[in-house]
């Protein structure tokens, strides 16, 4: 790595310039430096690496931006986690429940508990509604509401699907595509839930996961003892130990082609600009932001500008309590409150709180940047979270001893009716015009993926860079290596690659989640009538 004066605060020459120090960016940096390459990473956050997988610390309390279980079907990913963080994983029991009208329902469902909570009359109504849906199903299935009502009955749909889904995605269920419902809930059925619930209730489920392969039903998981940010702090430290650098509090100003296949990246920091020259560039930045800062501007900049995102904020409450509740997280299906999910960070790891007499919960609110929730002051959000926890019956406000707010912009890529064509257009233009520019990670590829998918896109990108050619297609998905959250990516064209991914690599590439697509306005007219 070399430095030289160039009319800016500093400039350097490295093998690879990387935008973003999240799981994808740091995975790439770690593997490249391990192979003897020099890298420079820019990260716009002033304090934390890890992106949405970071762990924030506030007065001795640690909390995640959403919960992050460390599970992957890819042994390569698991081995890399163990290599980066060999001594700090703990095994944690998974417990999560659904909250509805003042009562808690285990997830996965336990049949006797659910029937007892609903009561005889409501349970009977649910079964009648289910039978009605089987005898008289909606024939012209268009929406999430149609599909789910056919599968579970209108009553169960309204209890266990409608409110939470609309909170998360910010659109009515009758405007979400039925295809998304079929993918998201694939492998689950009312009968299967009842049978599994009966086995659990009767103590017949002896194995840790009862042999199930559905990811959302795992009953235990590994977790870094100080939160997921511990993993990415360790990765950063290992990268910097080789002499490469992570530039914190630096935002991308421009990524310019040097006309010879390489790149000149300019990043703006608190003390001025830094210029990084590199043969390759890796971007985990949102495609919309990257396109606007590329030089020359891509012809598909207008496509990228149409990509949309769902945003997210966490309100962490510090509470004087020795045992708040045992859940890792709770899904809030109650329409009386705005919160969508509540994390209990001490249940993720006892070391997430400074002493055993306190707890820390994270109330998760799904929103759009600039809307009423996003724009509220931190004090107002802490007050709202405290009030809603009291409404839910989970705490006494006088036990709250502190609070903090973390806003996460562009947490979830939105899959609207044009997103696939827009992503496809930009991806292929960049691949054809700039083969040394590599897109990785959730926002870098506009995919609602899991952490292991983001890492695998980086791992395969590193293989391509080291080989000097595109031997792997990082966009491919092997549908046989299926997660419960995995969706159909058939709308995207697959460019030829020299080498097929292995089954292990495909398992991580299949670790994507489904996002609802809004159905055309004409399709909602029938349902509104």
UniProtKB/TrEMBL annotation:
Superkingdom of origin: Bacteria
Gene Ontology terms: cellular component: cytosol
Gene3D superfamilies documented for this protein: FAD/NAD(P)-binding domain
A matching Pfam family: NAD_binding_8
Spans through the membrane: none
GO MF, one example: flavin adenine dinucleotide binding
NCBIfam families: PRK07208.1-1 (NF005545), PRK07208.1-3 (NF005547), PRK07208.1-4 (NF005548)
Protein name per UniProt: FAD-dependent oxidoreductase
Organism encoding this protein: Croceibacterium xixiisoli
Source taxonomy: Bacteria, Pseudomonadati, Pseudomonadota, Alphaproteobacteria, Sphingomonadales
